[in-house]
Amino acid sequence: MQKILGHIRKAVQQYHMLSHGDRVAVGVSGGKDSLIMLTGLVRIRDILHIDCEITAVSVEPNFGGVPADFSEIAAYCQKLGIEHKIIPTHIGEIVFDIRKENSPCSLCARMRRGALNNYAADNSYTKLALGHNLDDAVETFMMNLLTEGRIGCFSPVTLLDDKNISIIRPLVLAPEKDVRRAAKNLDLPILKLNCPADGTTNRQHTKELIAKLERENHGSKMRIFGAMQRDLPEWRIDSEN
C-alpha cells in the first residue's frame, strides 16, 4: 500500500485535489480501484492533515433486475470511519433491456457518472473522486485516438461549472499492477456487479492491444503516458487546476 499512497499523495499535491473544508464524495463501485482509492484518500487526508469530509457513494445499477449486496462495502467503510451512501437506479434495465445497446459500456458509464454528479451537486459536495488509474488513462487516450481519430483523455481534475463541483482522480499516477497488488495485500471486500457486457468491451480489447505493444516493445505504456503528461495541457503539472 505504500506505493499506492505515494502515487495518491503525488497526484493530490501536484494537481491540488484536496483542500481544507472540502466535502468529497468518493465513487465506490466495489471494484479494486475504487476501494483502493477510498482507502488511500482517507489515509492521505490524515497524513497531510487536510480537514475535509469523505463519504463513499455507490451507484446501484440493478443489473438483471437484481440489486447488488453492498453490505461488506458498508462494513469496510465503517472500519474506515466514514459513511456509505447508495444511489438506487434502473441503469441496467435502461441500457440492456429497454435500449438494448450493442455497445452498452459508454452509455452505462455516462449514466453512472451522471448519477454521481447529480448526487454530489444535490448534496453540496465540492469534490467527486473517481477511481481511474494510470492504465485507464492510457487506454482512454488510445481508444480516442484509434476509434474517434482525436487526441484527448479525461483530466486529473475537471471542474463542472454547471454543478459547482470538481471531478478528481487520485489514482491517475498509479499503475494498475500496483493497485491490484495493494488490493490483494489488504484483502479488500471486492464486489462484482455482474455486468452482462463484462469482458467483451472495447476497453478490454484496447487493454489487450496495449499489453501486446508492451510485450513487443517494453516501456510503450509509460512512454504513451509520458507523452500525455507533456502534450495534453490539462495533464501538465504546471497547468492550473
Distance between the termini: 27 Å
Q: What is the chain-wise order of helices and strands?
A: HEHEHEHHEHEEHHH
What overall form do the CA principal axes indicate? globular
Q: How many independent structural domains?
A: 1
Q: Could you please say which CATH topology applies here?
A: Rossmann fold
Chain oligomer state: single chain
Helix content: 40-55%
Q: Tell how many strands the DSSP assignment holds.
A: 6
Task: Name the strands of the widest sheet in spatial order.
Answer: 3-2-1-4-6-5
Uncertain segments: none
Report the average pLDDT across residues. 91
**Biggest beta-sheet profile:** 6 strands, mixed
Radius of gyration: 17 Å
The CATH architecture comes to 3-Layer(aba) Sandwich
CATH-defined superfamily: HUPs
Number of helices, where a helix is a run of at least 4 consecutive DSSP H or I residues? 9
Strand content: 5-15%
Structure write-up:
- The chain has 241 residues and is α/β, with parallel strands linked by helices.
- It has a single domain, classed as Rossmann fold, CATH 3.40.50.620.
- It is 49% helix and 12% strand.
- The chain contains nine helices and six strands, in the order H-E-H-E-H-E-H-H-E-H-E-E-H-H-H.
- A six-stranded mixed beta sheet has the order 3-2-1-4-6-5, sandwiched between helices.
- Helix 2 links the parallel strand 1 and strand 2.
- Helix 1 packs across helix 2, helix 2 crosses helix 7 and helix 4 runs antiparallel to helix 5.
- The longest helix is centred in the middle third of the chain and has 19 residues.
